[in-house]
Amino acid sequence: MLAANENYRLGPAAIKDVELRYVSDASSGVVALETGEINFMSVPPVLAGPLVANKKFANQKTLPLYTAVIAMNTKVKPFDNKLVRQAFSMAANKQGICDIAYEGFCTVAKLQAYTNSFGVDLLLFQISLTILKRPRNCWQRPVIQMA
To answer: Which structural domain, as residue segments, surrounds residue 98?
Structure first.
């Protein structure tokens, strides 16, 4: 239980007491939220749809505490070839993965770091990669063009 500091320099707190509970099962947490037993929780994407549709609840999409990454074993063929990895990266339907695996409750990441993390250069998000073909039908290195 957290109690408000009565001598806080900016005046009295709007909330006097806060009880933090750990609910190990997300489904139980959603039931507790729906019944009014708890007032706030982070909801996993698979359980978010009905709560977002329910006008009784206010909801807000925020940055998560994690970034999901799909990794390849670069020690085995064909993923030991950098060009194959680049082709897979460009061909992957990242929004489709968000829509299916996270039921649309995600954002396609451009980096493994959060965009609001200290040191992340937002200028990087204004750069688009354009792949040009050589006349011999070989792939050329990506050319960086400012958007």
So the answer is: 82-146
